[in-house]
Amino acid sequence: MSLKSGDSFPDNVVFKYIPWSEESDEITSCGIPIDYNASKNWADKKVVLFSVPGAFTPTCSVNHVPGYIQNLPNLREKGVDIVAVLAFNDPFVMSAWGKANRVRGDEILFLSDPEAKFSKSIGWADEASGRTGRYAIVIDHGKVRYAQIETEKGAVKKSGADAVLASL
Predict the structure, then answer these.
(1) Any idea where the Thioredoxin domain is (predicted)?
(2) How does pLDDT run across 11-38, given as a tens digit for each residue?
(3) d(CA 75, CA 165)
(4) What pLDDT, on a 0 to 100 scale, did the predictor assign at position 1?
């Protein structure tokens, strides 16, 4: 079942996450993974969730994440409370990727979808690799307002910050 505009965001969506702290700002600092209950935390927020096949990969690191970092002020102007990136990588890798991109605090949440469970549940995991697909979802107070998956390998057209901004 893929998500579409007008759907409710699923209940019981839990990711893994390592919260940023000043003490663990170094890329070699591990931190402690915790559960991040997206369904609960996002119920009364406007959220942009974008998913990538893998941290530290060329398209994801060069074309996808930087667009969201650069457009954070524009997303905030459109009322977005939370921006989160999701990948199948473990929470340690996702935390390091956030630090490598100089993302501090909760500017962008770097979330882990272990075994691509969430992506598989909405039909947006890559069947061949088992990784999360490349997609973007806008959730506004529990309702999906935008949901698009890239169908072209390496493309960042429907899931990039510009496409999401245009939908807001």
Answers:
(1) 3-168
(2) 999 999 998 877 676 777 778 899 999 9
(3) 7
(4) 61
